[in-house]
Amino acid sequence: MEKLGMLATAPQPMCQWCSKNRNHFLHCTTANGVCNVWNEENYLTFDGRTFDFDGNCSYYLVKEIIPEYNLTISVTKEDCEYSGDSKFCFHSLNVGFKSDMVLIKQSNSSGTVQKQVYVNGKQVYPAYKNEAILITGTDIVVNVEIPEIKTEVVYRDSSISVELPQSLIGKNTEGQCGMLNLLKYP
């Protein structure tokens, strides 16, 4: 796995899809940025870098540098349980948007991984929807959508995926997922 640091190659622009409408005006849409975390410690940033990060702590995957939507996506990693060859690490995922806070807690009950979902401190069950957030899923997979800013966070058994639109959030993010800036490292 490549570690973060100086790279020998220059960043490349991310894909753009352009089309002409019937009046021959050009309409361009940029690709969304996707960040992935898997197996508790492996990261793929918005710009395509991979790195490992392990430890019991809380940290931001995504945080706006200049708050416009009060978007924050953070993870808390806690102690792991070991059973034979398997390992289970307790995680919680927080997704904040405007005045709403979604907390997804993962637990291991008799060998079965389950997720509990809370919105503003109150337990909810997917499917849940308020004015700003849509939550769908099961005990294993929980999907948090924020339609206003076209953002999706998916929390699976051992992975988290964050998808953000460059057009709304671009160049205004920091955290483990990096800056969403249309640059892609090979």
Automatic annotation (TrEMBL):
Pfam family, one: VWD
Entry keywords, A to Z: Disulfide bond, Glycoprotein
InterPro entries per UniProt: Mucin_vWF_Thrombospondin_sf, VWF_type-D
Domain VWFD: 33-186
Name under which the protein is recorded: VWFD domain-containing protein
